[in-house]
Amino acid sequence: MSISSALEQLASYRARNTRASQDTFKKGCAVLKSKVSIGDDGWAFLEQLALASIDVGRLDIADECLRQLFNKFPNSPRVAVLSGIRREATDPPEQVLKYYDDLLKMDDTNAAAWKRRISILRRIGKIEKAVQELAQFLDTFYTDADGWLELADIYSSCNQYTHALEALSHALALSPQNPFTVLQFAETAYTSGDLPLALKMFLVVIDMSESDIQAPQDNPPSGICVRAWWGIKLCSRRLMESRSHPGSASDTRLPKNLNLIDELATERVLTAYSGEQGTQ
Amino acid sequence: MASSYTISPQAYFKVFFHAAKHPHKPVNGVLLGNADDTGAVIIEDAIPLLHQWTGLSPMMEIGLDLAGQHAEANDMKLVGYYQAGERLDDAALAPVGEKVAEKVRAGFRDAVAFVIDGEQIGTDSAALIPYVPQASSSASWRPHSSNVQPFSPGSIFQLFSNDLPSRAVALVRDDYSHNSFGDFDDHLEDVSVDWLRNRTCLPADI
To answer: pTM for the complete prediction?
Structure first.
């Protein structure tokens, strides 16, 4: 592994916000040791290494990165939040909650500090308080799609699927081009028992993902489409099996050609496995 | 509940690798095996399911179905469920876990569930907390209560051999075995991932 390829990988992790802490730590330390000049991305790199170090329990490296960042940016809210995350690793939660509180008192636009507060509340089991604060946060910072996704996740973990779907609708409104949000919506709808809605949204995922492919029927589905086709197969099979008219909390109507959809989904799933030796 | 439950190296390593591969995420999967003539349950294998959206059911249902078919094709049954929580101190069996465990119990009366003990994993301890269904009809699963610590001498829960935890740690730390391991979520992104068998991650003597 050369230093330049390590830097490339680290930059790619930063761009996609990937949490591959073991690998980041290994490559980041090699870069630090090499003392090569990183240029403009140097500070983002130190932040990234600090986070990875905290994740793998190497607080010594994290402290070194923080020291350099603090020297360069003594009044930065971003460094202050990073310092908070470092404290979360060792200090009692109530103390760190207070720390973020103080940050917010100084600067109530520090959204990151607020989100860290909420994540601590969730971590220590204060789910109701976390939801309350998150709802307040989203009132102020409505366009934070991640916040809506987090809210949906908390609701799902408490089996409150209707609220989860509401939160996901906001996330969808903010990032309508993101098929993963649609997929999460479809799977949540299925879990809540609304099969017609789930089926509709799984089909939307396919529509979104294949819209730029010339002849999708000629190729095996890949990536997110495999998951979506499985979802369509599952929904259509269950809908056809149930004799009585399926209820839909969202009043979504069934597609007219359910059996054709089921056939298509079966073909697509089997095709996804074509060329694989022996696997199901 | 069976007279005893013994976990094979193959099953233990796979559960361990699953948790090691996704340290900051919840993971879950099912356990495969059989009961012998005396009613003792041998847990021979594990099939990992999810590490993402573990609270949502569609992929879980599909994975469970496929795992069940694989078990049958290999003369085994689904005998249990395992999960690891997101947080180290979270040793509860999640609602989803209870549902799956109940489903497994419908097909195997002595089904058992294990929650990975986040505080103990990485030590010499098995770090698995057994959950069993309660006798009352308000079927909620609780940690198995007994005077004997699970996986210690005399417990009805045993590992094939007591060096499995330390071997597992070494395999992850030195050989990065967990990197050649994949679950159903991984398989859905890349169908060449052999989530049902996962042979490549296992050491040669298993």
So the answer is: 0.92
Closest by Cβ to B56, choosing from A187, A272, A276: A187
Please list every residue in chain A whose beta carbon sits closer than 8 Å to the beta carbon of residue B26: none
Please give the Cα distance from A260 to A206 (Å, whole number): 16
Output the DSSP codes for A67-132: HHHHHH-TT-HHHHHHHHHHHHHHS-HHHHHHHHHHHHHH-TT-HHHHHHHHHHHHHTT-HHHHHH
Radius of gyration (C-alpha) of chain A in whole angstroms: 23
Q: What is the pLDDT of residues A69-111, one digit of tens each?
A: 999 999 999 999 999 999 999 999 999 999 999 999 999 899 9
Length of chain B: 206
ipTM: 0.91
B interface mutation test: which of A85, A120, A185, A234 has the most B CBs within 10 A?
A234
Shortest CA gap A243–chain B (Å): 21
Nearest beta carbon to residue B66 from set A21, A198, A280: A280
Binary contact (B24, A19; C-beta < 8 A): yes
Chain B residues with CB under 8 Å of A230 CB are 58-59, 62, 188
pLDDT in tens, B126-165: 999 999 998 765 568 999 999 999 999 999 999 999 999 9
Nearest CA in chain A to B94: A157
